[in-house]
Design the sequence.
């Protein structure tokens, strides 16, 4: 099994260009995030960047010499031409922040400093993260330069909108370091699920009693979010049908937000024709109030009764449309984990079921880790104990891949 989340960029090299924008203050955090993924980071700074962040910070965080000069005074012991060796060494070039000036240089193919020269000489993919005042960004010349870069195959991570350091409000903010690292990770990962269409359900459902109250469960969507991110990073086309959650899904996925089990069923039915894999990680309510009160139910007697009826069974409803699709279910149990999960898998005609232990602090709802077992009709596929949900997500996808 190939992937180990978090370590999948081990041994890869990013040449990290920092140019002279105010957002260069975020560069050390980007470098740190890349190092945490096992990436070998070599920073190249423009002269203007030196006004915003010191080479010492970048050297300390990357563990590598920082390159600035095209014509360094000392050449070191080996005779290497810096811009060529950097260009050849890179698995990816990252420029964050990329100034308007530097984007213009790239668009014209200029090579009058070490960073622009190295990028001109590389065959590696280049990710450019523009960051500047909103008027500089919206200036036609900057927009045309960015369009030219995109047409030539450069990857551009669009700036976000908000309060800018210059005092203006608008587009031009450098995305947060975690977002930049996430984009690098997606670009550098092996796209072994490329062309595969995956639908993932995630989070809880909420069954409304009246405009104030509802019935729900403890699902946070963390497992679903980990699956979405892992599938996107590996090149799959991912759709998500999610109940109300606070987690963020990977930016490349298409999200449909729903509230109740009924809405989740409808959304799943709508997407099902266009997918190869369905992963049902959502915790769908089993029961919903028999009637919904449009007015708030007033406090009255000591005991109150809400009549419940069962929600539609999503897997049973869509089973006739399974065809050659791979269906993966989840089971959350406090006891008899294997037996209950096995029974659910057979009853629902699943290809695989991920059985999670719930009720412990380190497994199941809200936790970052899970313990349990993955079963297929042939038997136990995988046992996991206190495993990070991101790593578990990759394991599940490895097993799905074997069944495609
Ligand atoms: C305080 C200050 C902040 C700046 N911030 C930005 C910025 O966020 N984005 C940008 O494109 N230029 C910014 N500039 C202008 C660049 O530093 C200038 O265009 C410089 O020539 C860029 O050089 P480089 O592209 O070689 O790094 C800023 C300048 C100053 C003095």
Sequence:
């Amino acid at each position: 099994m190939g992937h180990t989340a978090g370590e999948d960029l081990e041994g890869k090299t990013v040449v990290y260009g920092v140019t002279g924008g105010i957002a260069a203050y975020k560069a050390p955090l980007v470098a740190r995030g890349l190092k945490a993924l096992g990436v070998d980071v070599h920073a190249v700074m423009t002269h203007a960047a030196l006004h915003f962040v010191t080479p010492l910070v970048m050297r300390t965080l990357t563990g590598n010499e920082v390159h600035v000069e095209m014509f360094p005074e000392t050449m070191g012991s080996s005779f290497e031409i810096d811009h060529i060796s950097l260009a050849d060494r890179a698995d990816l070039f990252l420029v964050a922040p990329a100034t308007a000036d530097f984007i213009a240089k790239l668009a014209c193919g200029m090579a009058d400093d070490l960073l622009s020269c190295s990028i001109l000489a590389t065959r590696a993919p280049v990710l450019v993260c523009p960051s500047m005042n909103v008027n500089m960004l919206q200036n036609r010349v900057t927009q045309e330069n960015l369009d030219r870069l995109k047409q030539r195959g450069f990857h551009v991570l669009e700036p976000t909108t908000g309060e800018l350091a210059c005092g203006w409000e608008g587009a031009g903010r450098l995305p947060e370091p975690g977002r930049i690292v996430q984009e690098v990770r997606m670009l550098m990962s092996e796209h072994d699920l490329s062309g595969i269409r995956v639908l993932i359900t995630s989070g809880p459902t909420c069954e409304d009693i009246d405009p104030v109250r509802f019935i729900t469960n403890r699902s946070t969507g963390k497992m679903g979010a980990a699956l979405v991110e892992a599938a996107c990073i590996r090149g799959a086309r991912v759709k998500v049908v999610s109940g109300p959650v606070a987690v963020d899904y990977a930016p490349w996925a298409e999200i449909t937000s729903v509230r109740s089990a009924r809405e989740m069923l409808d959304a799943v039915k709508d997407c099902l024709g266009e997918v190869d894999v369905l992963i049902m990680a959502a915790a769908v309510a089993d029961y919903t109030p028999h009637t919904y009160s449009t007015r708030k139910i007033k406090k009255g007697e000591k005991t109150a009764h809400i009549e419940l009826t069962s929600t539609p069974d999503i897997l049973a409803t869509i089973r006739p449309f399974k065809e050659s699709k791979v269906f993966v279910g989840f089971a959350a149990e406090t006891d008899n984990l294997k037996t209950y999960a096995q029974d659910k898998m057979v009853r629902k005609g699943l290809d695989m079921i991920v059985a999670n232990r719930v009720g412990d602090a380190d497994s199941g709802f809200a936790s970052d880790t899970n313990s349990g077992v993955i079963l297929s009709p042939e038997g136990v596929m995988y046992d996991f104990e206190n495993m990070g949900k991101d790593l578990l997500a990759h394991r599940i996808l490895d097993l799905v891949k074997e069944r495609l």
